[in-house]
Each structure stands twice: as C-alpha cells, then as structure tokens.
User: Fold these one by one.
Assistant:
Number 1:
Amino acid sequence: MDWYASGSIIATGALVAASAGMVGCFLVLRRLALLGDAISHAVLPGIALAFLLTGSRSTLVMVLGAGALGIITTFLVQTLQRAGVQEDAGIGVSFTALFAVGVVLVSLFAGKVDLDLDCVLYGEIAYTPWDTLVIGGINLGPESLWTMGSIFLLNFSVIGLLYKELKICAFDPAMAAAVGINVAVIHYVLMGLVSVTTVGAFESVGAILVVAMMIVPAATAYLLTERLGVMLLLAVLQGVVSAAAGYFLARQLDSSIAAAMTTVSGAFFALAFLFAPRTGLVARALALRGLRTGQQMMQ
Amino acid sequence: MDLSWLSIADANTRWVLGGACLLGLSSGVLGSFALLRRRSLVGDALAHAALPGVCLAYLLTGTKNLGLFLVGAAIAGLLATMAMSAITRYSKIKEDAALGIVLTVFFGLGIMLLTVIQKLPGGNQSGLDKFLFGQAASLVGSDVRLMAAIAAGLCLAVLLLFKEFKLLAFDPGFGAGLGLPMGLLDLVLNLLILLAVVIGLQSVGVVLMAAMLITPAVAARYWTDRLGVMTALAGVFGAAAGALGTLLSQLGPRMPTGPLIVLAATLVFLVSLLCAPRRGLLARLIRFVRLKRQVAREGALRAVYELAEAVGDPRALVTPDELRRRRGVTGVGALGALARGGALEATGGGWRLTAQGLAEAHRLVREQRLWEVFLMHEGELGGQSVDRDGARVPPAVRTQLEQLLTLHGLEPRLYKEGA
C-alpha cells in the first residue's frame, strides 16, 4: 500500500467531511438542508463559466464563479417565492435549471474545460496525491489538502467566533432578533460558508456527494446528543471516520472513493437511527416494553 | 445548414421523440399533484434513489433490460419512500433533512455500484452511465413500447381517480370525512409518481428528473386555477419540453438529453412566468400601471372639484398653479386623460368641470369623505369587515355615515343628485 497516496486521500476526505459536517449541523438545525442541496448543484455553471472565461483552474477564480451562482440561486428562490411559487417548487425549478445549464456547458466545451461529467458527480479525490502545490520550486504536497485545510480553518474560526450568534439563530431566530443579533447577516454568513465549502469540496467529491457530507454526519450527531457543542464534535468525528472507512471500502471494491465515503456515512446514520441511546428505534421499543411491563406489575 | 436531424421520418428518431413526449406527458400530469401536495422535491429523492436499483438489477441479472431496470428502480424508490417516512416518524429529524439524507446516501450507493460495474468486464458497455444525465438516443422500439404502456396506464389511473386525488390535493381532512381511504390514496399517488420518475430515467437521467415533475406543473399553474386544466396543460408542456429537448440533443453527438429537456421545460416556465394572463409578471405590471393611473385620475378630478367647491361655483376655472399647490396631484397626464374622457374641459390657462365630470367628481368626493368620516368614527361603529385598500365604506353603516357627514358639514356642496 502506498502510504503517501492513501494518507493524502484520507486526509483530504477527512478535511472535506469535517468542514462540511460543521456547516451541516446548522443547516440541519435551521431546516435548510434542501437549500444547501440546491446551492451545491447550482454552483456548477459558475465553475464552468469561470473555467471558460479565464481558462484558469485556480481556486480563487472558481470561488468567485461559484460564489456568484450561490447568490443568484438564493436570489432566484426568493424572487420566485415572491412571484407566487411555493418554496419547494421554487428551489426545484431554479437549481435544476442552473445545473442543466452547467451540464450543457461542460458537455459543449468538454475539450476546452478540464472538467468532465464524472468529476462533476463524484469528484476526483483519487488524483489528489499527484495534483501538488509547488511554490518556488518546492513541492508542498497535494494542493487540495491545502485548499481544504484553509476552508476547514475558515469554517472553524467563523463558527468559533460567531458560535453564540449561530446557536441562538439556529434555535430561536425571534429571540436572536430581540437581543439585537442581525439574523439576516448570520444567515448570509452561513450560506457563504456553505458555498465556499461546496466549491472547495467540488473537485474532490463532486456536487451531489458534498451535500451528503454536510447533512448525513450532522443528522447522525443530531440523533445522538442534545447539546450543540457535542453535536458539532460528533458530526466532525463521524465524517472523518466515514472518510477513512470509505477509502478502504472503495479500495476493496475498486469503486469511486467519494461515493464509498457517502455510503459508509449513510450506514453510520442507519446505526444511529436504530441504536441511538434513548432516541433510537431499539431504545424506544425497549422503553415502551418497559413501560408496559411496569403497568402490568402495577395492576 | 444541415437539417437532417429534423427528419422525423427516421424510425429511430421517431421512437426517441415518442419516448421523450410520453415521459414529459406523464411526469407533467403527476407533477401537478406532487406540486399541490407540496411534495415537489420528493420526486428528486425518488429519482436519485432509482440509481442503486438500476445498478443492482444489472449486477444481479447481468443483462441490460429496461423492464428489469424499471423493476429495480421502482423497488429502490419504494425503499427510499419508506426510509423517508420512517426517519421523520421515528426520530426528531425533520422532513428536509430526511429527504436530503435519503437522496444523497442512495445516490452515493448508486455511484459506488456504478463505478464497480464499469470496472467489470463488459460493464463499460452496459450504458448504465447514460442513466445519470439521460441519453434519449439510446432508446429502442421495445423500450418506447414499454414506456407508452406505463404512461397510458398512469394517465388512465389519474383520470379514474381524478376526483379522489383532487380531494387529496386540496382538503384531505374533508376526504377522510367522506369515508375515503386517504392514506391509501396517498400511497397510490406516490406509487404513480414513482412510476412516472422511472420511465423518465433513460431520457432525462436521475440527476435532473425532478425538474420534469416540478417545472411543467409550476408553469401550468400560471395559466389556470382549475385542476383539470392545469393537469392537462402540465402534460402538454412536459411533452413539448421532451420533444424540443430531444430534437436539440440531436445537434451534438456528445450532448446528454436530460439537461436539454430540462432547459426546454424551463423555457416554457419562463414564458408562463412572464406572459400568463392574470398571474404572469407582465399582466401584473399592466394591472399595476392601470391602477396607478386610475388613482391619479380620481385624485385629480377630486382636486378640481374641491377647488371649485371652495369658490362655490361648479364652472369655476382651476389653474395649474392652484392644482400644483394641492398634495396628491402629480403632473398633467391625469388631467389630460380626464379632458379626453370628457370630464374636464381645457380652457385657456386652466381646467373646468363638465356636467358629466361634475356628477362623477361629486360621487368620488362624497365616497372619499364618507370614508374619512368612517375612519373618524370607526371605534363607535363596531367591528366591521372593511376593504381598506379600496377605501370602501361598509354598506351596513352607510346611512349612519351619511347622517354623520351632514353633521360634520362635509356634504359636498356642488351638484346634488337629481338636482
């Protein structure tokens, strides 16, 4: 086994999962999971256009293109809502249209854009070890590791700095507004983090699976605890473990690494759903049985 | 210019076009109900969930058979529906996250299986990757015949259960009160939606299939308020989008059909959004401008009347200067329109009420003052349901208000009814 390759792939996957998991907790708590889904699809035309216009693959260009599309999506959903389209349908219409534009752009200019449809769907995490960052002739290791590392630090510090505000907004926006927190700004900060994480993770895990890395670990953690701090920690942990386990599963099956990571993550969720202490299906059934026997003993 | 791609005479193109129309038709029809049930995005989850079903069907049988794929996709979709309802029912996770979880995990599993299949000997030729973004060109005659049968069945089922589905969409509680099995009907509707998704997979692909359920239905909603018309219209829009997208995809060899069909549907939606009568943006804009003009005209007419009233002469000449000093009269556009309508006559350096204008202005001013009196005495008159935007006095207290108007000395003095 090649330790360098495996290590850098797992590390990238773990960083993606950790960055996405942290943001995902707030998406799940604020019931914005579907908006996250929509944004992650809709950034595709932004990325494709940025490639086409500048011919550059640099992260900054991608972030700009994708960020613009993220804002356009949020705006479109709101505009459609104001024009009388119900919210779920508005999300559906706008993200499918934008994603379709993106796919058409990628297929039309497949020769000119170093980006293919497979990459859009499930990323190219397998190539990370060889896509290295070289500055001044010094090889600094895989580039995506640096990108995802910066995004992880960004998410970590923003969430750390705005922890109290994000927490109040997540649980009680009305109270947040009452104590003088600018709820709209916090909302846009959160959406900004979602967009940045999506773009960063896009190359390694693709458009659709990055949503999985946002929602699934967060939902698993949500089942296991009632404390936000613990939830964040558990989500990151679940993401990292899924990334590592997914890598080995993919090696066994010779399949897409990012997809295997998602599958493992889903398995963890199923386990939590069934066996979580107190809230899991089994614990509930046992508690119900305990109640019944208790009643019978009383009679 | 090479127009040979337009030739529908070619048998293969005919099949492909027919298939695309059928899928648009059935998903448009069922999408209407999904939209009204606020379940638009469930179709997205079902479509993504179909991928592992298709892959497993291939892995288990080793053959590429549309019928088998459909069975696999249907089973996977059913499992996904059950998983979604189990998650929302037995845990504190809300609907949006449950949908996201099921969608992404099933899709992840599907991609994993798909990449495994592609590495198998012969797997690369399985054409399974066409299920991601759709390739209408890969449809053959037997596929289309199967699709036609399913689509016909779906439309027939909707026709037969139309009344029941209508109740389900608008007032399930009332339906249950009538003794209809609403839970069962909901399940049937979900199954029909699932089938509609499944027959679209090969042409549109799993990633964008949701748009075929949502977009034509939302577009149709703009044109009508009647469910029957909306359902039929959504079917027509879907079929048209299917045909247009397929024709466009024949232009380039590497173009996946799905995104083009979705873009065609989006085009229909945009046209509806702009041009639909009553609900469309243009119609709204026109209504808004008309209302604004009417308000301006009425304001101007009232202003001329009240200035004449101050002098005590209905034929008094009102100068633009006097008008400008009053609030609420903007520009001469409204005055010009009034003159053209015969309510005012323009004389050198001013405006004067005509006999017709006097009657009209008297009515307007009186209504306005009644409204003001009503606002003054609203507290005493008790809770009335009032049209505040139209500033109309409630009819129940009208006589009372007319007495109050005289009491306040606000009765318009120029021109009495019948005088």
Number 2:
Amino acid sequence: MQTVNTEEIMKQIRTEIKEKGLDSSLLSFEEIPFAQEVSHADSNFQPASLQQSAEYLNIRNQIEAYKPVEGNFLVVLIKKIIRKLVKFFIMPIMTEQNALNLHTANAVQQVHNYIQSRAESDKIDIAALVSRIDALEARQAADKQEMAALRSQIRALQLENQELKGLKL
Amino acid sequence: MRIIQFLPTLAFGDAVGNDTVALQKAMRELGYETKIYAEAVDQRLPKDTASDLCAGMPELNPDDVILYHMSTGSKLNYELEKYPCRKMMIYHNITPPHFFHGYNAQAEANAQYGLDGLKHLADKIDFCFADSDFNKSDLRKAGFACPIEVRPILIPFSDYEKKPDMHIIKKYSDNYQNIIFVGRIAPNKKQQDIISAFAFYKKYINPESRLIFVGNWGGMEKYYNRLVNYVKALELDDVIFTGHIKFPEILAYYQIADLFLCMSEHEGFCVPLVEAMYFQVPILAYQSCAVPWTLGGSGFLTDSKNPAETALLMHRILTDDTLKNQILSNQKERLQDFQYEKIKTLFAGQLRSFLQEK
C-alpha cells in the first residue's frame, strides 16, 4: 500500500482554514426540531413509499406472541404462569392475525408489482413514441431539405424561363 | 452432518441476506449438506432459497451444526440453546439503541432486546465468526469466551457487473462533482454530518456539486424528515435522497460518483465501502467503528467532524490527482482481500478447524 500522509494533509488544511479565516460555523443539526409524527395520509401517490411499505410487509408480516419476561424471580414466575394461562386464548388470535398479515402483505406486493409492470410497459411505450418522434423529426428535416432543393430548382427554372422569354422577344 | 443456517429474517438484497445465501452456495461447493431456516423469508427470493422456520425445524442430531446469524433482537436468541447440536454464530453487529432514541421507539427497543439476547448467548455458542475486528471486540465485551475468527462478509461481486441504469448516468453525467453516500437513512450513519460538510463545500469551494444519498428511510421517517428540514434550513440545493431504488440504479450512482463520503459512527462492516472500492470511487470516511478495519489502510480516514475540514479534504481528494490515485491504488489492493474465492477459502479453513474439534 502507498502511504498517504494524512497528518500532514490535515495540518495543511487546518492552516489553510486559519489563513483564509474560513468560518466553519454552520447551522447545527441539533437546532433542527424533531419532525412531528409522520403522516402516511399524503394525498399524492408516492411509488417509493409504496415500495418501502411493501418491503417492510414482506419481511415483517409475522408477529410473535413470545416476549422475554423481565423482573425478579417472583415477577418472572408470575408472568410466566399468566403467559401459560392465556396461551390458549392468545395463540389462535395470533395465528389468525398472521394469516391476515400474510394476505395483506401479498396484496400490497401484488399492487406494487402491477404498478411496476405498468410503469415498465409505459416506459417501453414512451421509448417507442420517442423513437417514432425522432424518426418523424428526421423525416421532416429531410422533407424540408428536399423542399428547399425543389424551391431552388424552381427558382433556377423561373430564371431560365425568364431568360428564354427574353431571347424570344 | 448437516450445517443449518438459522436466522430470524432472510431479507432480499441486504448484507446479512446476501451473506447467508452466498455462504449456502459456498458450503455446497465445499461439499457440505446445508440449508437455511428463517422465521420470515422475503418473498422476492427464489422459492427454494430457505425453509420457513414457523413450519418447524428438522430433527437435529448432535453431529449437526447450527450456524446462527446474529444481527437483531429475536426470540431465537433465547431458543437456540434447546437444539442438541454444536452451535456457531456469525455476528453482524447490532446498532446501539441510543442512536434510535426519539426517532423510532420500536427500533430502539428491538436493538436493546438484541443486545440482551447477545449477552444471553455468550456462554451458549461454541464458535463465532465476526465480520470485522470491531465485531470481534464487541463479542468479547458481551462476554463471549469461545474462539472467535474474523471473516469478512461474502460479497457477490458478479452482481456488480450487471448493466447500470442509463437514465441516471445520462442525467448526472455533467460537469458537477457527485458526492455520494450509500446506506440506509439511519441516525447511526450520521447523514447530518455529510450534509454539513457538503454545505460548506458547495457554499465556499464548489457550487457545481451535488450530494446524493442512496438508501431507503423505511422505519426512519422522523430522522429523514429532520434531515430534509436541515437541508432546507441550510438553503442547500442539489441534495438528493433517492429512497429505495432498484439495483441497476444503485450501480448507476456508483458509476457517476466522484467521491464516497462516510461519516457513520456505527458500522459492523459497511459493505458500501467495498462497493465504492469496486467502482473505483475514492473514499473519505470518519474514523470510527468497523470503518478503519474494512478500509484496511486504504481510502482516507479523518478523525474530524468539522465541516470546513471535511469540505477542504473533499476538495483536496477531488483535485489532487496524485492523492486521488494513491487512494484508488490502495483501495484496489484492499479490494483483493474481499474476493469471493479468498473469503471462501478463509471460511472453509475456519469451518474445518471448528468441525475437526470434538
């Protein structure tokens, strides 16, 4: 590896800042207030937002009933007993919820796939239209050139005609 | 003997998911019988990549080996001990919870749950792989006394040879200097320090420059909104947040990048640094966490977060061809250490030495 003299470079840069009197004080990030609660009710369609939600749902659609219990021995024991007692009630709900989540995730993914495939086909359509416009523009330019050539031919013929008329007279 | 890779979530395209899938391929090439089990498998992965852990684990024998990927809080951290076989763990690191404070209470709680799980596992694992020296020292601090070997993440470089998005290349291939950072929008990555350095650079040094953050902000909307407000308050133009984008678009951003600027304060490995090496983008990075290890003497490390100093450093790297070439040459050399075959050989040796121990 080649040696990069970082210390020397940093020294030179610090000297440069001092000599030029560069003011490094900027508005600090700490002065920016924390944003308010994030609203997902934006009326505009945001493809990136849909993609992120679909991705999140893809990965995190299964919830867990299990959470580690904390506290002293007695508290842990009581919590574990309660957990055993309510297991028969919680587990079927969790299974149903997980099934619902899975279908929701799938539905969102399908919507996302559909929008993406539409966007892809739109892209292809646009590319085809752009190339057609390019071809038409090229044809128009060629036609213009041809017309200009014809005009100059007409002018030449008109001049020739005038000359011939002059000769006749 | 089977080697079962075991993890809470197998995601598509993230560092842990890529590593798990790449390891499966490598272990099969080495002749091992292996399979991945995960509680949640990203639906975008090919169907036979992994089995659903909720459908049940196979019967494990004492001869079998679990290779557990540890990167998050999960009940699996407390269930691993019940399997009657030898256990190896790959530690990808857990972001300290305090970074998420005020931005995402769930992420903060999950990170704490993960760190508690890590401590719980300290005496239940027989052998550990760590993605970096930094991760190894984190494991020691968490109480792991078992052998720990450093093994960098397996990166599928062949993916980077795919065609980049030409629209992006065309759009940003102008006379502007493109400064990029690739990675999730997350408080531990300190994107605000990149913004402040860029603000100074654009204002006093080069107005013809743009800053591009490539990465999604899912789950970190509050932090993202605060960053956007910071950019507005600084009256900065040409700061782009791409959000989640497709892989060819990521490749395109690396292609148009003139400098990779990283001010992160917590990384377990930082794959984008290796990606920047691959695309020959000079790296300027803050000296913290696993970053110095991953750079391995390449790139340019700074211990300063002063915006003026960082901005002048950016300018120096972008304009001093000798320095830039030195950095790129060192990065090219370091990149060799992350080649698939090299990591695979390293992993094979470490795996063999563990499996031979009885």
